Amino acid sequence: MLVLFFIGSFICILLDQITKYFAYKSLRLGGSIEILKSVFRFNYCENRGAAFGVLQNQIWFFAIITVIIIGAVIFFMIKKKPQNKLLVISLTLLTGGALGNFIDRVFRGYVIDFLDFYIINFPVFNVADCFVVIGAILLAVYILFFSPDFPSEKKKKQVDLNTQTDE
């Protein structure tokens, strides 16, 4: 699973950086490409903050936090060698997405965003952001329903049934 984690993270980074490269080359000079009329378009933006543009120009803060979190995830993967596929996939997506945006922050000073659902006035985002959100959702599902350290209601009921005795 460890090899799949590293390969998967690399693939996520590669997909993110390739899409950002094309967005930079084709949209940077003010162009946008409408994909679904009045719904979705590719629209180039430079985000110097975090999600929704918060904490503008705090590049080194984000870099340090990213290094600490990714270091902890890699340490966990090497030390614990998790075998649950859902856990490994979620950590792979989180790592790949976080490192994709980390690369932008360190080498460009900003993150390239270009996916724009303007029908709902949602902030522009990128492929790495998609990986982070999907990874976080999958991690939450794992913690709530599959983690042995966080029993779900179903598991609690099962434990309660097992501990009842006939008197």
Verbal overview:
The chain is mostly helical and 167 residues long. The chain is built from 5 helices and 3 strands. It has helices at 2-27, 59-80, 85-108, 127-145, 153-163, and strands at residues 32-36, 40-47, 111-116. α1 runs parallel beside α3 (85-108), α2 runs antiparallel to α3 and α3 runs antiparallel to α4 (127-145). The longest helix has 26 residues, at 2-27. It is globular, with a radius of gyration of 20 Å. It starts with a helix and ends with a helix. The model has no long low-confidence stretch (mean pLDDT 88).
Topology (SSEs and partners):
Elements: H1 2-27, E1 32-36, E2 40-47, H2 59-80, H3 85-108, E3 111-116, H4 127-145, H5 153-163
Antiparallel strand pairs: 1-2, 2-3
Which key terms come to mind for this protein?
167 residues; mainly alpha; 3-stranded antiparallel beta sheet; 3 strands
